[in-house]
Amino acid sequence: xxxxxxxxxxxxxxxxxxxxxxxxxxxxxxxxxxxxxxxxxxxxxxxxxxxxxxxxxxxxxxxxxxxxxxxxxxxxxxxxxxxxxxxxxxxxxxxxxxxxxxxxxxxxxxxxxxxxxxxxxxxxxxxxxxxxxxxxxxxxxxxxxxxxxxxxxxxxxxxxxxxxxxxxxxxxxxxxxxxxxxxxxxxxxxxxxxxxxxxxxxxxxxxxxxxxxxxxxxxxxxxxxxxxxxxxxxxxxxxxxxxxxxxxxxxxxxxxxxxxxxxxxxxxxxxxxxxxxxxxxxxxxxxxxxxxxxxxxxxxxxxxxxxxxxxxxxxxxxxxxxxxxxxxxxxxxxxxxxxxxxxxxxxxxxxxxxxxxxxxxx
Amino acid sequence: xxxxxxxxxxxxxxxxxxxxxxxxxxxxxxxxxxxxxxxxxxxxxxxxxxxxxxxxxxxxxxxxxxxxxxxxxxxxxxxxxxxxxxxxxxxxxxxxxxxxxxxxxxxxxxxxxxxxxxxxxxxxxxxxxxxxxxxxxxxxxxxxxxxxxxxxxxxxxxxxxxxxxxxxxxxxxxxxxxxxxxxxxx
Amino acid sequence: xxxxxxxxxxxxxxxxxxxxxxxxxxxxxxxxxxxxxxxxxxxxxxxxxxxxxxxxxxxxxxxxxxxxxxxxxxxxxxxxxxxxxxxxxxxxxxxxxxxxxxxxxxxxxxxxxxxxxxxxxxxxxxxxxxxxxxxxxxxxxxxxx
Lengths: 362, 186, 145
Fold this sequence. Notes:
The complex is a heterotrimer. Chain A is an alpha+beta fold.
């Protein structure tokens, strides 16, 4: 019988931009068990709600994770709005969705690039990141920031995008779309890409349900779950929304789902630009969350469903704020897919699931 | 000038950053900013690297890892703290688990601010660092480069926040909680 | 907007409730603690598509809670987190890191009333006391000399 060895993986590893450590128990070249060790990025951010009032805390939520920065400020604001019964003006809701969907395009392109880098396709990596810069350009023009936008606050948004600029954004996205089709074809049709992704980290549908995975990870295993399909906020204006699914359940499926979601997000932005109503940007928010008030809210982040919970205590400081990020939900599923895979496939396996460690640990 | 100064290789590590600065470090390497055209390459191997780009504030668990990476790099080497968290701890300065900037763990040569740091700032910081690298290389050749001293092993509990250490503030909070609980029982 | 459903339950109902959600095919959306005086409030959230229900349960510090991770494997992260930040000990969890998941710099930084926090205070006081006595002795020796 083959001997068992424990191989440490990370925290500093060339394919991982973030520190996460795995103890891989291997037999010959096969992984028998994987035990994640985290805590390298734990900062204790949730406790800052006791030091910063609920309006100022928006800027901290953006810094939970630099990739889904706008999404976290949006999720937090929505939770506080439920907590305090604030009605957000319709134009603000649509602008929020536009920025959020642009963030999804930037996040997915970033991830597709890292994936290409992971399987050794340097050119594809550079092309993805080149296209992504256009979205960052839109962010910079509309908010002044490339990564941290500071555009969302409790009650609405603090910046407008003129209708003319909105049409300009659609033109930029249309130009991107043609170039993106070339990349899409490489990701989905190229044989060497398929060789590296097909059959990697298979998570069948019933296992995906059991392990409670979310986001593209779940949709690639055929689970039709997407918070956007419930039509909350600005998503209610869309004439239809169908989550993108794949039944193949492997790394290739996860790549396909995300790659197609980029096009879907472009469509959403284009449709909302057509339908955006005029009006106020922000509702007046007065007073503090009542003592004993609670609110929960969910948001579809690029990596999946994110859960927010806030509890008020009658002061302008929150009693408790909790973020359950998609990556912490996907950790159990990731550990499961690692069992039985080849040691050489471990990086690809982790990359296709795309855990965001900074979100997980906060 | 030596080859390392002409085209330095970069080791990037995320100390406990929010990813914002990490993606900007990568953005500096990819098209649009494209520092690779100057021969600057991102490597995963500390022994190959001349520049250590480090992002994010530092927590206790990271200190030995950052030090190990730093010590594995060969002289001459430069440490660049990328982003305000790496410089001082940034918005996370007051968090119980954050020690502060990177300089609590290893000596830093260039501090590059920003939240998130802009790729232009990274390029400026690297150019600044290359001057120091060249100076270190000269000293090394002359045999007079003194290895930089590592700061004392820090502890987040001893970090002062608003005039009190984290540990003292926490002990006070525990004592308060116990007192209130005792009163409720009476 | 998500539905805001909060229900209070007792510890002895917990296992039955979780089993019933599992059997109906709901997923565990969240599990987190929050500190309420000298007790800890645990919030279990379950979702099924647009439906969302939250169970609220008050437990004493140091009380052992049956783990949900054997039924919902994704809960192993939340359970270890609650142990590190609130000192809530779950029994029978899938992967138990024994309080070394996040390894925070002070014990249970979100819950000052937890047992580990109390132990921490007691040992810090004992250390301060011993140090003060040590100093007195040292001063005494100097005056004798």
